[in-house]
Input
Amino acid sequence: MAPDQQWLEQYTSQKHKLAPPYNLETYFEVNEIAGVPMRRFSVGEVSVPTGWILVRDPLAWLRRDDRPYLTQVPQGNFTVTIAAAIPDGDSPRYASVKVGFTGKRSVRQEEALLGIEDLSNLAEGEFFGFNVDAGLAAIADKQVRDAYCDFKDRFHQEHPEGNIYDDYFAALFDASYQQHPGMQRSGGDWISWTIPGTDYKMPIFATGFGDGAYPVYYGYDDNDEICALFIHFIDVALAYGEVEEEE
Output
């Protein structure tokens, strides 16, 4: 369902307040932020058959009736890259996720919205984001969302007393850790997953500091065309930068 004219007018006047604090491409270009080492790695491809996508916690919040974001993206299979912060004395923390659609650099970002948000009392730097209750996230085209919901329905029909994470996903995450231990905690933090019975690829990965709310942004190139999607999990400079003491 398209948003009404009043919402669109509000969005046009307020969208600058929803911009990220800086260009999120930085996470995928530099080797250090605020003294914290940054590393990048791929978790495979994501399938985008229609171009209408969602970002959700796949265990708690990816449901068949969820609406996709307003803006359609290119169709195809695209690499999903994670930018991880490596803070001293802590495990790697996934700071941002990027899906590059065109290979061009993003020069600005706008938050991905549904067209139903209340824009009337926005403050600078606020975001809407998506909720996380299981410490995980996934990017899903609406057609992939439906295939995933079919998979979950079959699982629960076949395992009426089962837990889909403990009885299915946990072994996949552990196998991922065994194969790629460098950027994961014991037990696994990401999987490059294809929905059983389909060709749809839907990587699943840990979210920054775990449960909470996280913003999603579309990146636009210097021709003002959409070229990427970003999930912003951690403001590395804010979270790990040294705070100067007042004299």
Residues 243-247 have pLDDT under 50 and may be disordered. The first strand starts at residue 32 and ends at 33. The chain has one domain: 5-119+127-239. Helices lie at 5-14, 142-158, 164-179, 236-240.
